[in-house]
Amino acid sequence: MLLIPIPEHGRLRDMIFLFIRLALIHARVxxxxxxxLLLSLATALLTLLLPLAFAHTFGNTAAxxxxxxxxxxxxxxxxxxxAYAACAITGSARASGxxxxxxxxxxxxxxxxxxxxxxIAGGLALFCVTTATATLLAMRIAExxxxxxxxxxxxxxxxxxxxxxxxxxxxxxxxxRFRNASFHASVFVLLPLLLIVTAGSSGFYxxxxxxxxxxxxxxxxxxxxxxxxxxLALLMFAALTQVLALLLKPxxxxxAGLLILALGLxxxxxxxxxxxxxxxxSMAIVPDWxxxxxxxxxxxxxxxxxxxxxxxxxxxxxAILILGVHLFNRSExx
Amino acid sequence: xKQTALETIALTKQFRDFWQxxxxxxxxxVSFQVATGTVFGLLGPNGSGKTTTLRLMTGxxxxxxxxxxxxxxxxxxxxxxxxxxxxxxxxxxxEFLSGRDNLRFYAGLFxxxxxxxxxxxxxxxxxxxxxxxxHRPVGEFSKGMKRRIGLAQALLNDPxxxxxxxxxxxxxxxxxxxxxxxxxxxxxSGRTVVVSSHLLADIEDLCESVCILHQGRVVAQGRxxxxxxxxxxxxxxxxxxxxxxxxSLQESFLSITGSAALMDHPHRALxxxxxxxxxxxxxxxx
Amino acid sequence: xxxxxxxxxxxxxxxxxxFNNRAAWWLTAAILAMAGGSPFLLRxxxxxxxxxxxxxxxxxxxxxxxxxxxxxWLGASLTAHEITTGELTSVITKPVSPACLWVGKWLGMLAxxxxxxxxxxxxxxxxxxxxxxxxxxxxxLHGHRVFRPDHQALFQQxxxxxxxxxxxxxxxxxxxxxIFTTLKQETFRVVPGRSFTWTFPIPDEPRNTAQNPSRWSLxxxxxxxxxERVPLNGRWIVKTASGDIVEQPTxxxxxxxxxxxxxxxxxxxxxxxxxxxxxxxxxAVTVFFDPQEPVVLLRAVSSFGSNLxxxxxxxxxxxxxxxxxxxxxxxxFSMPVTVFTAFALLFAITLSKAFASLPEPNHSxxxxxxxTAVGRFGEMLLVRLDQSTENINTLLPLxxxxxxxxxxxxxxxxxxxILLTALPVLLAAVGxxxxxxxxxx
Lengths: 334, 286, 441
Fold this sequence. Notes:
B: alpha/beta, 6-stranded mixed beta sheet, 3-stranded antiparallel beta sheet, C: 12 helices, 10 strands, 57% helix
């Protein structure tokens, strides 16, 4: 049996439109979910405030700690985000009967499943933009030395960045009040936008808050590639949890997701090193999260590695989604 | 003259959004009285405000304006809650508990001792026909069974006023008849029953007086018998007549009134026919 | 007392609900594994003292963390989830007041937590006893009363410096506390060829008897900064009020953070006790004593079991407050939002401990980092957050337990008053008020 039906000539366009429509509706469901917004907001704030809580730098620069902390928050909160999104979308669609209703229309289960994943991926992408920008700002906030200012924390950027998160909430409230727009969705979208604006404006003042013209940026944008790789790992986890959500209840999805995460972190340590078949097998079953995390050391990544990671993530996600489509096609929609 | 068990005066309920803007007015200026010892029906199409009115009566929602007196007291007072029974539209049982344990739990909330709670639970399980399933978790029950157990929990304290939201929804005809019989008996014993339904046959069978709601407003209310009576027409009911007797009667009507009378065979209600058939099939063959 | 039977019914139901929840069984399994299994899996620095330090630190903290997460989850499900599913609708129409409903559920949660904590404490006690058995004679486990050295002179110096700065400086002077910490940091820095002396006032009260000999010891927290990677070979000299002198070499100490103990004779006389640390001139190592807790004099006052019970009782009080928080938040928000908000609140309180270090000049950054008014405002907010949550953080007994400090009756009383009475009463009032005005759709 073919899992993905090949459409007749001329129907492909309709199918693509249908896919986009379904993906958008699922992304909207996610953006309107308060927990997703809370996760995004809390991760951004925590990342921004992190440089202020360093007591010891253990020989590293504070910016390096802020970078690692921010990426770690992105990974951990992203995992919660992906698992929650999969459970919320699959679970609520089943409980409310939306799934049965949609499948009673001329929509193939394959298309619905893939569009659902695309919706989750969209929400996750927006989340990653928020956290990556927050990490970028946190690195600027962290204590650093410059001849002009000496050792100092950039409290000005910290305060403006936190204020921009509050402003996003206020704007969301105003949009809800006067335009009836969803508060959660508005803030979810406004937050990364305002953080990007904050990052853009940070070039106009120095670490002590003094105006500088022309603007001089001290943001280490190379970190965005590391954030992107973590985003890839999160997409893999989202695919996994979406398949798990077809089989298990939410608490069990969380527990199973945690188990897979732990296995993925420990297996590379105990499986044989190098490119032995056993190592490849373990990486094919449980994602090797470490492979994505080591790349956080921007500048130290050997050139072929990012390409190999993209290929690995693509193959893994495709395989998991094919398995998911197969299970979804076989499942009964009560 | 009968006493008033329940009274609403200009009852209004508006739902508001976060910014306190009115999103919908579910109930508008609703006023009616329910006499003690009667069965009162709230009728109306979907979205007419029946469930909202019942929830206002039980204190689950708070009126935006107007007032409700239940048994002479406020609906939120604990004294009132001690004297009423309520069956909500959706069943909210602890699904991991058995039917019996659920009833024992609710009985405990009325302060009954363990033994008394068990006695009441068993009696009511027998009354609603679930004594054989008493030890099964409620989560395994069908919709009709949940409705029955819901009715049992509403009757636990032998309430003076019973408020039922769609009590026959999901029940089979035999169950419906059983429930209706139970409610009639309660009214006969001086208890008051308020029923909301959009099933007209149920209301017609049960209620002495009704209130019809439409878009949150009262559009008609009064004694059901008076409301349904067609004073411009008459009906005679006789035993079985021969064809000759029928023809003779037609001629008489024609000569007296100047127009022919309508004559046909009366129909049984489908519910009564269905119940009879099911009972016949269910009887063991001798 | 009309409400009592209904409350008992609610407590019973809550217990059945929690134990019926599959998550509760996972929770129990995880707690037992952590309390009983993890002490055997920990690997210390090769010394018995190091191992015991780890066993005291990690398993109780992990057990508490798991129980806290479980309490927040289950507490939220008892209100927020029941409101969503309609279970609470049927209950609220019965003659039960919202306050009774809240308290019934809270007491049920307390009973559940008490059962799990008792189980965890018993398993943990057994595990620690087994681990410590080979060393029990030489180093029995105790809860210790702590005596801190007298820093009155330093404090007076800080006060004087603060007054002088206020007179001379146009900018806002640092606080006395900040100056005090700076002074301690400067003073507790022992370069090669120097020594430093602390004085402890030993009170009359803790006297040993023949039946109950006192066990005295000194414990130091310090950091070695040996740029040449040469181990330190210093000397501790203890002088008691009666003139007895205990002298002991430190042994070779490498770079990094250290904690060392020194046993003292059991019959310490009352009066001042002085401790001198001397760093030999030939040493290439500078020793930085922890400015907050450089050295403490310890006296064993309770058995390990008793101190464990006291610690777990305070943790129980914390869980009671957490259950109250979850129940009340559950009346305000939906289940996922409740769980998230409760976790975020507790996380913020815990994190504020890290912010406590913000104005301290001994860390990687100083208080002068805020250059602009906007920056100063941000800094001020963080310091306020720390100050407002300081009491809650101080009450948490995990750090004291890990250091084998005796959890005093005063701490127990504070935990009962703040965590098990004041906070729950406040939260119950909010929760009950919210349940009264809540509309059930």
